[in-house]
Amino acid sequence: MGKTMKTLLLAIVAAVPVVLAACTGSATDQTKIRIGEVTRSIFYAPQYVAISQGFFKEEGLTVELSTTAGGDKTMTALLSGAIDVALVGSETSIYVNQQGSDDPVINFAQVTQSDGTFLVSRKKLDKFDWSMLKGSTFLGQRKGGMPQMAGEFTLKKKGIDPQKDLKLIQNVDFANIPAAFSSGTGDYVQMFEPQATLIEKEGKGFVVASFGVESGQLPYTVFMSKKSFIERNPKTIQKFTNAVYKAQRWVAAKPVDEITDALTPFFADTDKEIVKAVVKRYKEQQSFASDPIVDEKEWNNLQDVMQTAGELSQRADYKKLVDNTFAQRAIEAVGK
């Protein structure tokens, strides 16, 4: 784990600024629940669908959504009580567990089941082979974060040592990676959507591979909360999970155009055709989880990725940090 993550997880703050609030409406019989998302991303389509299509409201919940900008800040907000539920990578719950928390963070509803980044080449390649990366300058993600770990895991699978075979750049802030690549930094870059599609549209780069496809299924982004909050509010967590599962079924059943329409209110500054292209790409590679269950095999794959990156000192107990009770009940209640 990087020093920044360790420091911020230990220095818990009392509040986190709310960047954006999104509510389904209010009613006297509704329960308010505060969600902190690690970033605003089309990758989290089921969450926005649960809001825009009224699934949270159906369950008697009013959602306040804030973007907490980074795994460390999101976890700090959760641990301090500034938010009730976090949408963030499962690795953050493992990091908290490694710190010896008396109130562990529990993963209870999975949203994405693969890495969401893509390998973008500066040059258009008629035929790509991973060996082409050797000797290149690679603009990567933050050390200790799930994107970088999934990236390194994939590179090593392909016979590439990130530290020896590449000029690896990791000192660029997440938000500045697309601009850095556009301005000439790196031969290749590991990039999220919609930036990857935007870069392609501008002719400044070309998507040549998917880290999500290559690194396999894992609980990449999950709704989680403190054990104490879940124990105090089991009915609220159940309603929340029911709404998430309804949204997952909706996303699985609906065409790309309809999903795009459901998401556009959350991406007002992004061209609708870009949103559509990203939804199509993520849906085709099955990035969205089909149900909220956090699978043990995927959990173990996550820890394999973390160990390969040297970010896991001891494997975390699946049964301690994952509670599928609410997901299983949601499937029973809503149907398959």
Automatic annotation (TrEMBL):
Signal peptide positions (record): 1-21
Keyword Signal attached: yes
Entry's localization field: Periplasm
Pfam families in alphabetical order: NMT1_2 (PF13379)
Keywords: Signal
Main subcellular location of this protein, as a coarse class: periplasm
Domain of life, per lineage: Bacteria
KW Signal (keyword) present: yes
PANTHER family according to UniProt: ALIPHATIC SULFONATES-BINDING PROTEIN-RELATED (PTHR30024), TAURINE-BINDING PERIPLASMIC PROTEIN (PTHR30024:SF47)
Family per record: Belongs to the bacterial solute-binding protein SsuA/TauA family.
Name this polypeptide is given: ABC transporter substrate-binding protein
Organism: Paenibacillus hodogayensis
